[in-house]
Design brief:
Blueprint: E1 2-6, H1 12-21, E2 26-30, H2 35-41, E3 45-48, E4 74-77, H3 79-87, E5 91-93, E6 99-107, E7 123-130, E8 133-136, E9 142-147, E10 154-157, E11 162-165, H4 177-188, H5 197-212, E12 217-220, H6 225-238, E13 242-248, H7 256-267, E14 271-276, H8 278-285, H9 291-312, E15 318-320, E16 358-360, H10 368-377, H11 382-385, H12 405-424, E17 433-447, E18 450-463, E19 471-472, H13 477-490, E20 494-499
Parallel strand pairs: 1-2, 1-3, 3-4, 4-11, 12-13, 12-15, 13-14, 15-16, 18-20
Antiparallel strand pairs: 5-8, 6-7, 6-9, 9-10, 10-11, 17-18, 18-19
Helix pairs in contact: 5-6, 5-10, 6-10, 8-9, 12-13
Bound molecules: xanthosine-5'-monophosphate.
Keywords: ATP-binding, Glutamine amidotransferase, GMP biosynthesis, Ligase, Nucleotide-binding, Purine biosynthesis
Pfam family, one: GATase
Function: Catalyzes the synthesis of GMP from XMP.
């Protein structure tokens, strides 16, 4: 396995992805990780990532000295190259010639990293993003590729197996970048490349057993992909030591609660407490119209109900969460201070922060699509592993204004039709999220010979990779009119349908 030490680059996660895609297990740790921890991990090679700081600044981040004493291959990328060269006795300087974006390197000599892709004399496209560059090499290094802004574009010390790259091989704009990384992990470090999701599953099960021992674990199940996969994985490891608590706030999509309960109880034999608290949630939401107040009310009740149920089963030693890699922002400050900020997981409208329990987070090192692959590996149904993200407060934030049981039921019907049509058109997987919003607007319509005066509803469908930015999904007019026709005809209470074509930014995905 490979260890990636993170100096805070925006694209460090991509290095991890590329390494895993080549069949090699890896983990990303902050560069402040302790020597003991690094040695215990026993990596076959270490990659030093890029980062926003400048090696020329006093107090800027450095690689732990121990990585140079372990006798394992090293690959420094961008900032990682610069700090490696500096720490080994070379020199780094700022320059007027900054390079951002597409650039070209001239390959001057053969190198283990280039096997099968780059030959001496070739000019190759890469993606650069740097102001500083290496100006003097440490002993033992040679230059194997150059660029206009970085005379030391790729450097190598073959005897120690240390390599430095000024550009970013992990991004797609460096066309052969994945192969360069693969050459490092496979040829230089000797990784076999046989790591798979099945191997991850087996290792994760062992890790969970070792962590939990004979302790009791509870898991707040939301029906979403992350908590569902975490629960099934943990159940595989410790069986009935795990109890899942499903707090039903009555704001799920039609049929979703029944599906979650059936899947987990009947199919996976997981101990599941299903608490129907919909009366309580809807009661407390009565008269609440402000979106943030809705979220807070739901979050507070969720914790109350969760704690009640936890007390009923006699407490637990561990709390399981489906936290993913992107939820864990291990940010490293430009000055090298060991500041680690963890963004709290907000899948279920805010999990009990005050609960002083140890956390079991078996998905911490994975990306969303890897979690889906793991779910499939565990035999989970496609309706769960492929499911669109769904907000913790559920339909409450898709009903601007006051939430009532009647409005929830109307919205559920419209939503079911919309998703049915999306699935039967084969579009579900091409869309990040699709849902209906029940608008607090009544408009006049005509049905048969009669006048109607009912609610309007909006359809929303967006594409996105992480929910941070989003684009409207370009349905055909034929598809939209079919959905509108069905909703107006089949759902009493809605007589008008609109399509929301706002991107994010400036809009948000949800309406509240
Ligand atoms: P916005 O509306 O901010 O949504 O563009 C971005 C993503 O976050 C989800 N979302 C939430 N998820 N609790 C959640 O668990 C919330 O309060 C919440 N609000 C928005 C939204 O569905 C989208 O995936």
């Amino acid at each position: 396995r490979i260890l990636i030490l993170d100096f805070g680059s925006q694209v460090t996660q991509l290095i991890a992805r590329r390494v895993r895609e080549s069949g090699v297990y890896c983990e990303v740790w902050p560069f402040t990780a302790g020597d003991d921890r690094i040695q215990a991990f026993a990596p076959k090679g270490i990659i030093l990532s890029g980062g926003p700081a400048s090696v020329t600044q006093a107090g800027s981040p450095r690689a732990p000295q121990s990585v140079f004493a372990m006798g394992v291959p090293l690959l420094g990328i961008c900032y990682g190259q610069q700090t490696m060269c500096e720490q080994l006795g070379g020199k780094v300087e700022g320059s007027d010639h900054q390079e951002y974006g597409r650039a070209y390197v001239d390959v001057s000599e053969p190198c283990a990293l280039f096997e099968g892709v780059w030959a001496p004399g070739a000019r190759e496209q890469v993606w650069m993003s740097h102001g500083d560059h290496v100006t003097a090499l440490p002993q033992g290094f040679r230059i194997v590729a150059t660029s206009e802004g970085a005379p030391f574009a790729v450097v190598a010390d073959d005897s120690r197996h240390y390599y430095g790259i000024q550009f970013h091989p992990e991004v797609v704009h460096t066309p052969h970048g994945a192969q360069l990384l693969r050459n490092f992990t496979h040829s230089v470090c000797g990784c076999s490349g046989d790591w798979t999701m099945a191997a991850f599953r087996a290792e994760a099960v062992e890790r969970i057993r070792a962590q939990v021992g004979s302790g009791k674990v509870i898991c707040g199940l939301s029906g979403g992909v992350d908590s569902s996969v975490a629960a099934v994985l943990i159940h595989e490891a410790i069986g009935d030591q795990l109890t899942c608590i499903y707090v039903d706030h009555g704001l799920m999509r039609a049929g979703e609660t029944e599906q979650v309960v059936a899947t987990f109880r009947d199919r996976f034999n997981i101990k599941l407490v299903h608490r129907d608290a919909s009366e309580m949630f809807l009661g407390q939401l009565s008269g609440v119209t402000d979106p943030e107040k809705k979220r807070k009310t739901i979050g507070r009740l969720f914790i109350e109900v969760f704690e009640e149920e936890q007390a009923k089963i006699g407490g637990a030693d561990f709390l399981a969460q489906g936290t993913l890699y992107p939820d864990v922002i291990e940010s490293v400050s430009a000055t090298g201070g060991p500041s680690v900020t963890i963004k709290s997981h907000h899948n279920v409208g805010g999990l009990p922060e005050g609960m002083r329990m140890k956390l079991v987070e078996p998905l911490r090192d994975l990306f969303k699509d890897e979690v889906r692959a793991l779910g499939r590996e565990l035999g989970m149904p496609e309706e769960i592993v492929g499911r669109h993200p769904f907000p913790g407060p559920g339909l409450a934030i898709r009903i601007p204004g006051e939430v009532t049981r009647e409005k929830v039921q109307i919205l559920q019907k419209a939503d079911t039709i919309y998703l049915e049509e999306i699935r039967s058109a084969g579009l579900y997987d091409a869309i990040w999220q699709a849902f209906t919003v029940l608008l607090p607007v009544r408009t006049v319509g005509v049905m048969g010979d009669g006048r109607t005066y009912d609610s309007a509803c909006a359809l929303r469908a967006v594409t996105s990779t992480d929910g941070m930015t989003a684009d409207v999904y370009p349905f055909t007019m034929e598809f939209l009119t079919r959905v509108a026709g069905r909703i107006v005809n089949e759902v009493r209470g809605i007589n008008r349908v609109t399509y929301d074509i706002t991107s994010k930014p400036p809009g948000t995905i949800e309406w509240e």
